[in-house]
Amino acid sequence: MASSLTCAGIVWAFLSFLCAAASCVGFFMPYWLWGSQLEKSVSFGTFRRCSYPVRDESLQMMVMVEECGRYASFQAIPSAEWRICTVVTGLGCGLLLLVALTALMGCCVSELISRTVGRVAGGIQFLGGKCSCGQGMGM
């Protein structure tokens, strides 16, 4: 197999893939924040949560649902800021995956990645990293 990458480019491609995978796993896991509520351990991420309170109308009180799941809809995410965080972080993870998979393809296909494509990919990767870490766009 011919490669369009140097040795440093091949290392960059594999590290990019590992970082993109770690970012995506972190995005999908509901363990961003931990705490307790109603004497139960709770955790949540941008669009998933574990052990959350709901109002039981038959008992007329709050009870804890001890399971993990997504919010029922995008609008069910607690605040506008949290929804923006979900979108920006998701876009960042998507950009990181796009660059990582393109770089991995460059390991197998000759003349796929030129110097200009590498620089553009690095810029996209920088933007994706800023978004997936919550640092992008003034956050």
From TrEMBL:
Cellular compartment(s): Membrane
Q: Which domain of life is it from?
A: Eukaryota
What keywords are annotated for this sequence in UniProt? Answer: Membrane, Signal, Transmembrane, Transmembrane helix
Query: Per its UniProt record, what Pfam families does this chain match?
Result: L_HMGIC_fpl
**Regions crossing the membrane:** 87-109
Signal peptide per UniProt = 1-21
Q: Which GO terms describe its cellular component?
A: membrane
User: InterPro entries, alphabetically?
Assistant: LHFPL (IPR019372)
Membrane topology type, per the record? Multi-pass membrane protein
PANTHER family noted in UniProt:
LHFPL TETRASPAN SUBFAMILY MEMBER 6 PROTEIN, LIPOMA HMGIC FUSION PARTNER-LIKE PROTEIN
Q: What is this protein called?
A: LHPL6 protein
Organism of derivation:
Tychaedon coryphoeus
Question: Which gene codes for it?
Answer: Lhfpl6
